[in-house]
Amino acid sequence: MRRELGIARCGMACCLCCENITCKGCRKEGFLELSWCKDAQWCENRNCGIEKGLNGCYECKPAECRKGLYAEKLSVRGFAEFARRYGIEELLDCLERNEQAGIVYHREDFTGDYDGFDDLEKLIDFIRTGKR
Asked: Domain count of the chain?
């Protein structure tokens, strides 16, 4: 886990993505040149947060939002909602513990153990406990 990358503005767990060792994440200065996320400039969630003056979607109402990634990725919305409720540090602590226990953020096809949930509360409980 690269904890220093933290959580993206949208809620993606940059800290768990090891695709690009030079990636700084979308919240860091110079991210467009070094970011793995090629859509960062056009990311509806990222841009909405910037327009509202937020550090991330977790400072808004992610459970209610269906913009951009939130329309299709419950996992991203779940990370943001978890951070809203419990804080970024608690989210990072849980993700780190879960990774050490063998829970996978994403595989080659970008699905992982946090995907496949159809209920936000069950996903949040899984993040918190590491148990389905």
From this structure: 1
Range of the domain at 85: 3-129
Half-sphere exposure of 53 (CA within 13 A, CB side): 0
What are phi and psi for residue 73, nearest 5 degrees?
Answer: -115, 90
Name the one residue in this structure whose structure tokens are 């860091």: 28
**What are the phi and psi torsion angles at 126 (to 5°)?**
-65, -45
Q: What is the pLDDT along the chain (132 residues), one digit of tens a residue?
A: 888 878 888 888 888 876 555 565 565 554 444 444 556 677 888 889 889 999 889 999 999 999 988 888 899 899 999 999 999 999 999 999 999 999 998 877 778 999 999 999 999 999 999 998
What's this model's pTM, rounded to 2 decimal places?
Answer: 0.85
